[in-house]
């Protein structure tokens, strides 16, 4: 799922640079699976169709939802979908509240997208549920063993759920997402990140009890102390079998700055897993090649593809942030 940028968003001034990234994503995604695109209006939809047609993207693999949008961060306003705990043949589609990362930005339109998406495209066998809890997809990772990985800075931040205790939050995540254990990352951040340290910018689960994480090796960088402390904590984490996780470090790209000399949150951890492929953000950096190699080590059976995301980080997010996966069974029959 992609929510397309448009002239009424903060992307207005660099649409000409950012839309080619979206088109490239659409081309890679439709090469291996279906794609849902959320368009702000019918004119935006027609504009997107023209862009995709010109790039030879197979439009029979693209499914549109037209609904007004504030912004484009599908990872955080999109639905969280999992197998129903009591019926593995049914999908549970959870619509958590999105409040613009603690009411930093307008989110009233984006908070309606999941409901519209489900009404228009979701298979009727799926069970949709709106949840009265603020939660963004970029704030959590959960593996096949039911272990949920997150940061304390984000998930326990009072700008999300001020009336919920940490115990309340854990109970809700167990109830809805089937989490059986938690790994709370207490250190790490990226300058320019508006999300209060989303885990998908710092540490990711990979197969075979592996954690892929950003490592800062520059002691003069402002991030060094926090990311070094995070690395030490990851080294102490244990799997459900009480053994250490396999750790794969991602390199640290050189600092990237925006027009106002604000540091931008460049991170290789913000990659997207699709069918048989991992799309990895790159930044025209000498470390790009090593990052791709490290992610190939984490996903040896996948094809690794780099996507230049310099235009994306100008709005303080990256590749994983602008996408949301919809598992097989989400779309109604013929659209699978």
TrEMBL record:
Q: Does the keyword Hydrolase apply?
A: yes
- Record bears the keyword Hydrolase: yes
Q: Which UniProt keywords apply?
A: Hydrolase
An MF annotation (GO) of this entry: protein-arginine deiminase activity
**Family annotation (SUPFAM superfamilies):** Pentein (SSF55909)
Q: Cite the InterPro entries for this sequence.
A: Peptidyl-Arg-deiminase_porph
One annotated GO biological process: putrescine biosynthetic process
Q: What's a Pfam family this protein contains? A: PAD_porph
**What is the designated name of this protein?**
Agmatine deiminase
Organism encoding this protein: Pseudoalteromonas translucida (strain TAC 125)
């Amino acid at each position: 799922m992609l929510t397309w940028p448009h002239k009424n968003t903060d992307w207005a001034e660099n649409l000409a640079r950012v839309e080619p990234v979206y088109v490239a994503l659409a081309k890679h995604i439709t090469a291996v699976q279906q794609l849902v695109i959320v368009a702000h209006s019918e004119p935006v939809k027609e504009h997107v169709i023209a862009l995709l047609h010109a790039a030879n993207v197979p439009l029979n693999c693209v499914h549109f939802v037209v609904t007004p949008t504030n912004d484009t961060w599908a990872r955080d306003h999109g639905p969280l979908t999992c197998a129903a705990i009591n019926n593995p043949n049914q999908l549970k589609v959870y619509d958590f509240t999105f409040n613009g990362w603690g009411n930093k930005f307008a989110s009233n339109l984006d908070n309606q997208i999941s409901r519209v998406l489900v009404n228009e495209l979701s298979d009727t066998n799926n069970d949709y549920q709106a949840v009265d809890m603020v939660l963004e997809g970029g704030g959590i990772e959960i593996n096949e063993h039911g272990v949920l990985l997150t940061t304390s800075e984000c998930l326990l931040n009072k700008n999300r759920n001020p009336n919920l205790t940490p115990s309340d939050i854990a109970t809700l995540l167990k109830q809805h997402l089937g989490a059986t254990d938690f790994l709370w990352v207490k250190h790490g951040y990226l300058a320019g990140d508006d999300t209060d340290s989303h885990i998908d910018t710092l540490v990711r689960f990979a197969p075979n009890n592996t954690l892929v994480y950003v490592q800062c090796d520059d002691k003069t960088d402002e991030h060094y102390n926090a990311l070094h402390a995070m690395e030490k904590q990851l080294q102490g984490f244990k799997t459900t079998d009480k053994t250490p996780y396999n750790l794969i470090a991602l390199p640290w790209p050189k600092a990237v700055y925006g027009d106002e000399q604000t540091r931008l949150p460049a991170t290789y951890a913000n990659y997207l897993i699709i069918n048989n492929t991992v799309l990895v953000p790159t930044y025209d950096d000498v470390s790009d090649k090593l990052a791709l190699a490290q992610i190939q080590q984490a996903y040896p059976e996948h094809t690794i593809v780099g996507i230049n995301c310099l235009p994306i980080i100008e709005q303080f997010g990256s590749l994983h942030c602008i996408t949301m996966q919809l598992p097989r069974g989400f779309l109604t029959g013929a659209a699978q």
